[in-house]
């Protein structure tokens, strides 16, 4: 037990209020204590390491990785001539032990998810905040037939994430149906007893996901009290068979790795208990020295980069039909570099989707041409007030500046908006 200092107790109860003819569930039950010889279906950068860990992402930026149980799971019981689509999705239960590592302490990267999906083709899904599950156009589409339990390590304003360390129940969209700050309720504490956990701590944590077809309640936590709960009729979402597995993605800035150490599943029965002493051990990747170097060089590198490429920083505050501007604290430090929102708006043709260069951790990057100087620019839209995001962005500029010259043809512009809603 010593090598698993923290266990997240997340319990996910999905229940369906349908009483139907008892039928024999397709006999799917498995347990993997390590994944050597597991024959999972892998794609992207996912791989099974020599030590038997399922490595969903390997530290390379802007990548996604998926791993699925090789056979589709007959969710509505045994498929056959008498199986009908009106049959309720069978109860299931799963548990897994995972770990997310970041190269830089305190700076989060993107998360991962347990997935139940109609298809295991995620080739057009995006990495970063989309977790390798969806893309700009497919997010929210009811045709996705996707249930995901996200272990999200970054706050994405576009998905209205509650913070940069949460567990969410996602139906067809990364805008979670319900989410809660990562942690668990300790059974031994009689008064509430909530304990925080940091998903990106690099520690192994265990999650339980249970679905019970007797009610329509969705809940996350373990052992007794759910961390997150909601109601959703899964029979309307999933077809007769579905693929079960994991998805993870990295962003464009910070190197992170996502691992699964053990996984069990039961259809119509409890998932077998995972013996955590038999699992492979997570690598210790967090280098304290490295993070200290980053902290020291960051302000310098950022300033140097800002000067070199002439970065412009801009933020819009719309109030009483007038434009007034706020100086951010980091801006005071580096001096204001501003363009008018109007100019950026025109440069990117009104932040048109066709101008999107890429999607970063917390905002979209648009290509544009400044009307006056005809300079080519890249504009990143972030929310004013997203301190985490700004910190991340500054870090991103610093890393880009120190690693590559790819941005040198562009001006880096931060366009921050105030959300009044
Ligand atoms: C769940 O969905 C199924 C299929 O659409 C429907 O037959 C059933 O009544 C729904 N159950 C509840 C409790 O709403
Ligand atoms: C991650 O995997 C990809 C594809 O398998 C490979 O090209 C890349 O070099 C790997 N990155 C690291 C850091 O190992
Ligand atoms: C691995 O899974 C595939 C299906 O994805 C199956 O065809 C193959 O027989 C399996 N191999 C072994 C060794 O189980
Ligand atoms: C399908 O249902 C019919 C009538 O209820 C029954 O006779 C038959 O054995 C069933 N077939 C299968 C494969 O279960
Ligand atoms: C988004 O994903 C959907 C479904 O996977 C795909 O059909 C569509 O082409 C993708 N859109 C983009 C812009 O890649
Ligand atoms: C747990 O984390 C939340 C959100 O970060 C914070 O508001 C709360 O104070 C923390 N609780 C404890 C006991 O640390």
UniProtKB/TrEMBL annotation:
Membrane topology: Single-pass type I membrane protein
Subcellular location(s) of the protein: Cell membrane; Membrane
Annotated ATP binding sites: 380
One GO cellular component term noted in the UniProt record for this chain: plasma membrane
Transmembrane segments: 296-317
Main localization (coarse): membrane
Signal peptide: 1-26
Keywords of the record: ATP-binding, Cell membrane, Glycoprotein, Kinase, Lectin, Membrane, Nucleotide-binding, Receptor, Serine/threonine-protein kinase, Signal, Transferase, Transmembrane, Transmembrane helix
Stretches assigned to the Protein kinase domain: 351-421
UniProt GO molecular function: ATP binding; carbohydrate binding; protein serine/threonine kinase activity
EC number(s) per entry: 2.7.11.1
Classification via InterPro entries: ConA-like_dom_sf, Kinase-like_dom_sf, L-type_Lectin-RKs, Lectin_legB_Mn/Ca_BS, Legume_lectin_dom, Prot_kinase_dom, Protein_kinase_ATP_BS
Superkingdom, natural source: Eukaryota
Kinase is among the record's keywords: yes
Family, per entry: In the N-terminal section; belongs to the leguminous lectin family. In the C-terminal section; belongs to the protein kinase superfamily. Ser/Thr protein kinase family.
Protein name (record): non-specific serine/threonine protein kinase
Gene source species: Oryza glumipatula
